[in-house]
Batch of 4 targets.
Target 1
Amino acid sequence: MNPAHFKALCGLLLLLSAPAVAQSGTLHGTVVTQPGARPLEGVRVTATSPALKAEQVGTTDAQGNYRLPRLPPGTYALRFEKESFLPQTRTDVLLKPDATVRINAELSSGGDITVERPVSPGTPQRIFEPLSPFVPPYRAEADGVARVLPPTIPFAGPEDDRERAPAWALPHMPVLVPDGAVQYLYRSADDVPPPEFRTRSSDGVNPTIDTEEDRFSVLFVDVKTASYALARDYLQRDVLPDERTVWAEEFINSFGYGDEGQANGPFIINIEGFPSPSRKGYHVLRVGVKAREALPDVGVQVEFGREAVARYRLVGYERASPAPEPLDDDEEEHDTPMRAGQSITAIYEVKIRGPAIAFGRLHVNYDDPGGSSRRVLMLLPSSVLKSSYARAAPATRLAYVASAFAEKLRGSFWMRTLDWARLHALWEEVGEPLRSRQDVAELGALIRKAQALDKRKDRYERQVPLTNMDLDQAPDAAD
């Protein structure tokens, strides 16, 4: 091309592009707390518009200010998000050519409400204060909360108990040796557990629940850790543990997850999630509740919003009784105490329908030391769902790895897409300094040991090939 023609062409292109640049506008503003009007740093501000090819994202500075420059003219929606605060969305923001538009926001904390619970039969029904205008109406307390302790496998008692015990129960029954130490006996399991110990779902793990059928899920406070200790003993002896002795909730609660979280009354609560590495379309959700003081009776329940959550599955707790117990049942034999510092951690798989302000609520019912019955309610904002495993807190990653380890040993249908090598890689991604902690390092070694020992074939491949796997429901039990 002639140099003169090339220069002329470049000049023409600059002239053509200049109006487009000049027409771009800017959205900016300040985000503060409500109440208090304190500047909020680290708020994620997301702008979406039909005029954009991809969403534009900014973050507020120490003064709560944000700025989104060079935006094409159009109608915008702005979403303001920060962990522990209720997200806010502003729609129909008109940005004209060459304009600078200020959009301020106030974010409210998604905190808790603690109320007294009447215990006398004649007490009138109380009215709860709303958490926020976005929260659906509160469910009547008469609906109840299930707080039935799961049945336990009998432990060492009279000497003849061991002689009468079935083979499957022996690994759970410690014996005392002359020096007073506890040892476990190992024997091949020739018979099967009685019906009351069988799991509720067809594939040996908890089923996936449609929220249209049941949107409430109960967490049992009294969780042991013997199952993980037993599996560790087996693996250290180069033996893969029997699937029927593996309980995911006991694996998860064998690890400490620290004191991070939001203080709510006498509890520290930690809620966080991320896209599932093994089940496409689902999020892993960690729910952690830790007592800050000793409490004589505690019940925990997760309520999923039907508008936001299509399905959910609680990992573990297969032995839990489904029979509910009324909240106002004060019989002492059902009391579930929590000592100061005691915690309970659970893992869910949750299928989100779409964008929402919040996807559920956490109910914690408790009796304080003075005998008053109280309740903590905590909104579960969608902002706790991180965009990836790497963005989740190390403690959340560890809880997931522990649960996935149990499900792999259990032969869970939902772990088919996550092989042992990938699970170990997820353990490595827990990160330092947590990964170097003795119990966490031991977990990594056990995963490697299980990988070397596991020679089982995919029991579902003939019935449901991996390429045709239904990600919402498991098949009937495979042979």
Target 2
Amino acid sequence: MSHPFVLNLIPTAQAANDDAPSKAPALLDARKERVLALHTAGVSRRKIAEATGETEHYVRQVVKGVPVVEKLPTSPFERAVARCYPMAISRTGIKDHQFRAIMNECYGVEWDTEKGKYKGRCTVDQLKRVRERIRERATADGLSAIFVMDWINTNEPVESNTAITQCVLNLQDAIQEAVDEFMQVSGIQHVEEGLDLALARKKQEFAARRYILKLAVKGLSKEPVARLQERTLDQVNQLAGTPDAPGVSVSVIKPHHPEPKWNDAFLDFCEGQGWLHPDHYPEVELAISAAGY
């Protein structure tokens, strides 16, 4: 039985009369360069796909056989950059609470006995340096790093910004309305000779706005609200000629919250609230057990 003659042409085969094969390296297109840059930097395939918009199948084909050359991060700074970078270059960016959580994990935390919670050891300068390094690295990779404020809805960024802007305008109107009402009732009408009445009213209006905000917005003033009201009442009584009038007595007790021992979540919470002393743990646990819980 005769067999038909088949000529197999192999693209990679070199022709017999080809004495000068080309040695010029193949140029990568921009898509592959971006994928490979992230891969060699240690970014996972899934994160690369999110950052570049490519499919995971395409990313897998491009990085196949290409080793990761970046060394494992050792310092807290390097670890923070390595962990935050893939999130920062993703479509939705990295939220502020996510960024700070990673910074706390990398730099460590310590217990704040006054506030009763853990606080990060990283400084403002370290936060700034990590953000700057991530932005520099993204620029070098032809990408953009986005650090997102927690209130932004990343699925509807424009709509959420429009909504909060309207909230601000409504609040500004309400504050101005309150200040105008105060000035109408208690605005300065007369000043001593030689003083500018318009300037005095302007200063009073500014101070009234600040005072209203300090009382209404928790945490705006470093001075405790109770202490501020006590100081205010003392000045008012002196001006009214009744310095001995009963006022608000404020006893400032510096709170102390011991660090949780993580033995029993409920007892730790009670201890943190100051409801229970650790010495009473055994009898409380015994009572709980006797009750069948």
Target 3
Amino acid sequence: MGKRGRAVAALRERLPLWVQLRCGLEPKTLGALAVVLVVAAALAAQHFWAARPRSVSAPETVSAAVPAAGAPSEAAPGALLPQAPPLPLPPPSGTARVVVDVGGKVRRPGVLRLPPGSRVADALQAAGGVEPGTDLTGLNRARVLVDGEQVVVDGPVPPGAVGPGAVPPGVMGPVGDGGVAGAGPPGVPVSLNTATQAQFESLPGVGPVLAQRIADYRAQHGGFRSVDELREVSGIGDRRFADLQPLVRP
């Protein structure tokens, strides 16, 4: 018996009894059975190899790009789209306003709401303009408005107020004997927001030092909103304020 015969006999002994009886222990049958077993073992090995645990990486995030005007909306396959720029924030719902009270010789006096940075001229225009014949000599129309202030247009200059030796309101005149430079017509209150240094000095109890303090306070705080703010100026007490209150206006 050769090597092949011994191998077949050894394989035959290892097969189960029902296989030996069913296959008839023919060499061809044993060879086919061996091939089937080898193929089954290979398939089992492949199955276990494919089912082994493996690490999986997270997919990359691709941001959608906003197509430009006139550009095609479809991108090339496999191309990464650029990240869309952030959208601009919407403007704030409430815009700051300057609230002023315009009165006097204007067509539509009342409380106005104007954009920040508006000037006296803008307030007069929003109030419909001044009445015909109104004198604006003592009104600084280029001054920036302050929230909460009052703008009063005095009206036309009384007849005979402008003449020899008379000084119109808001215009500085020469200092003479017994006169005060910059003094306006009698009975007209001095505007704290437009008066000159000389007009401040024309008030009772106000000298050059106190007049300068009033002007400095006006420049630092953007003007006077009311006459009561005079109390905050250094050197003006209750007694002096009582004297000045009927003679001045914002």
Target 4
Amino acid sequence: MTLTLLYRDEHLVAIDKPSGLLVHRTQLAAGEDEAALQLLRDQLGRTVWPVHRLDRGTSGVLLFALSSEVASLLGAMFEQGQMDKRYLALVRGWPQADEGMIDHPLARDPELPSAGQTMLEAQTRWRVLQRLEWPVVTDSRFATTRVALLEAEPMQGRRHQIRRHLKHIAHPILGDATHGKGPLNRAVAAHLGLQRLWLHAARLSFTHPLSGAALNVAAAPTGWESALAA
């Protein structure tokens, strides 16, 4: 696999991560040999440092540093909220409003019961870009399924933040096996002929940590045309 480079200079590089590709190898997916970190290292012929992560199912802009020093600078910028992150998400249902803010603390580890865990501050802005109605039946009372395309802007970078927040407002992301609805996900996958998490990191805007230049790295979603026209 050859990764698509969205931006590169002597200090950092951004790629367009495909859905289904791990950021780095992990024991949680011990059978997977391919990961963005190793692929990019081999493609560039040099060591690279990941400075943030995307869930395996999420596609889009993924940033790496080309030195440990720049990795530290970029990591601090993510932690301090100096990165403007914009995502696209296809969700179940039509939100009543056209935009809103989800302000809901999240447990540190989404794979463990929330009780007893430290609750972390978390806010996500969202706005509706498009409302769709598909001929998908998951409830015998309705002949169609309503779907919305949202832009989501997480203020922090909590694990699964957008996925958990959209579930919290009863608009889970389509294809989300952990936080979504299984029957709906299967029906949507059959309708579109594609099974994936419908979440895409569309844009990352920030100030270059060394040059001070304003950077705006964007990746158009691939394979979403049929979904948005369905």
